[in-house]
């Protein structure tokens, strides 16, 4: 059993390490996808288009979809990328995930006019700080901010200029998780129910945009239960 995970804006292959140990105990492998321009792909060109990111990550995983039962998980920007990857998998008639799990993001078709990627540096970092989840040592250290700012700006530009094109609905269940202190409208969360003909389960948890760090046990159990055909969970 495997979870293929897509990080949030500014994230990398280590962004979900807080889940790895407990998932391993359940017999679930966590495979976190690395976007260009960070981590071991630091020397590669940053991508600032969702279409380019989806093509890049799909090329990374397409040959692995026949190997194990898997689910796809994405947080924030990763939720959008995960959904679009699922759409591509269905279009190409490849083995589908047992489930798509998304957190910290409104449905793909919801329009958000905010353009944080265009803000001057100080205002940009104020917006980043408001999201929570970013380490104080980065927020307070100019050298670290200078390193991460191009990465974050590229990611925000990708999602803030994304133009959603409606397509056929998915044929997989979707779990949607969000924090009760996020700046998200519930109606925009509910819109996830329009993109699949299978069951959509929406769960509100305590916390801000990075509520996932405070709910490790819940997340691990939800991933585990998503493989119910394999493990016999009812």
- Integer count of domains: 1
Largest sheet: 6 strands, parallel
Q: N- to C-terminal separation? A: 17 Å
Q: Report the C-alpha radius of gyration, rounded.
A: 17 Å
**Could you say which structural class the secondary elements and strand pairing correspond to?**
alpha/beta
Q: Count up the helices.
A: 9
Order of helices and strands: EHEHEHEHHHEHEHH
Mean of all residue-level pLDDT scores: 92
Q: What share of the residues lie within helices?
A: 25-40%
Summed up:
The chain has nine helices and six strands.
Structural commentary:
This protein has helices at residues 17-25, 50-61, 77-91, 121-131, 136-140, 142-160, 186-190, 216-225, 228-231; strands spanning 2-6, 29-32, 70-75, 100-103, 174-179, 200-205. It is α/β, with parallel strands linked by helices. It starts with a strand and ends with a helix. It is 38% helix and 13% strand. The radius of gyration is 17 Å and the shape is globular. It has a six-stranded parallel sheet, with helices on both faces. The mean pLDDT is 92. The protein has a single domain (2-111, 168-231), classed as 3-Layer(aba) Sandwich (Rossmann fold).
């Amino acid at each position: 059993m495997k979870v293929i995970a897509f990080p949030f804006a500014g994230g990398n292959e280590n962004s979900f390490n807080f889940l790895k140990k407990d998932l391993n105990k359940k017999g679930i492998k966590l495979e976190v996808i690395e976007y260009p321009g960070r981590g071991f792909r630091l020397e590669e060109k940053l991508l600032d288009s969702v279409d380019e990111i989806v093509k890049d990550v799909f090329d990374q995983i397409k040959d692995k979809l026949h190997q194990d039962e898997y689910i796809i998980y994405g947080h924030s920007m990763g939720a959008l990328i995960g959904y679009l990857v699922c759409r591509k998998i269905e279009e190409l008639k490849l083995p589908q995930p047992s489930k798509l799990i998304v957190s910290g993001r409104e449905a793909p078709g919801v329009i958000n006019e905010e353009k944080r990627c265009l803000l001057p540096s100080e205002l940009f970092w104020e917006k980043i700080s408001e999201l929570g989840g970013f380490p104080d040592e980065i927020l307070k250290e100019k050298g670290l901010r200078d390193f991460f700012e191009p990465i974050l700006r590229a990611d925000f530009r990708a999602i803030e200029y994304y133009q959603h094109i409606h397509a056929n609905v998915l044929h997989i269940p979707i779990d949607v998780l969000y924090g009760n202190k996020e700046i998200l409208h519930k109606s925009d969360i509910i819109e996830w129910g329009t993109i699949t003909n299978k069951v959509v389960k929406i769960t509100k948890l305590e916390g801000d945009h990075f509520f996932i760090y405070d709910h490790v046990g819940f997340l691990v159990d939800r991933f585990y239960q998503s493989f119910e055909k394999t493990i016999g969970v009812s």
